[in-house]
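Supplementary Text 2. Reproducibility record for the structural model of the 188-residue chain.

All settings were left at their defaults, and a single model was retained for analysis rather than an ensemble. We include the record here because the model underlies the residue-level annotations in Supplementary Table 4.
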Amino acid sequence: MNFQEYSSYFKHILSKDITQQAPPYNNDDYFSYTRLNWSRMNRWFKKGELSDEMLDVVHDINKPQRWIVITEPWCGDAAHNIPFIEMLSWENPMISISYELRDSPPFRIEQYLTNNTKSVPKLIIQDAAGKDLLVWGPRPRDCQKLYNILKKEEATFDKVKVEIQNWYNANKGVDLQNELTTLFLQKF
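Retained model, structure tokens:
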């Protein structure tokens, strides 16, 4: 699906009463995460800024690339990262981007596990022949370090959620773009 279709799917979930939802959206927590993620994602589309260095690298792509984003609307990391990835794709006509749901066919996530988990979002960049050029995700390195520390401390889910949210709000997409810029320069 393209981003418009993904957004429509997202809005469709939010337009229904929780009692009409299929799992996991019939769970109060997942439904609430999804509602929050819609706001977060749209905020980054309005306020997120792409760095000049990242733009230069994306503008220099001169061969067709297929970007595949594996995600789910309930995923907090996706709400913070997808807007920047989507905005980058707008910058070069050589980039085509599509979205796949983690928990629906074709279940591509099975090929891109993170420490044996189905962590999303995942960005897979392929060449025109479908060969993987780059895989990124599910979150920027320093955010992952924070997550690992919190897990090691056995922090509550609520604490993890707040700390990760605060990290994304303070970082404003900078680390994601720095990581992608470095990876692009190494690979392309």
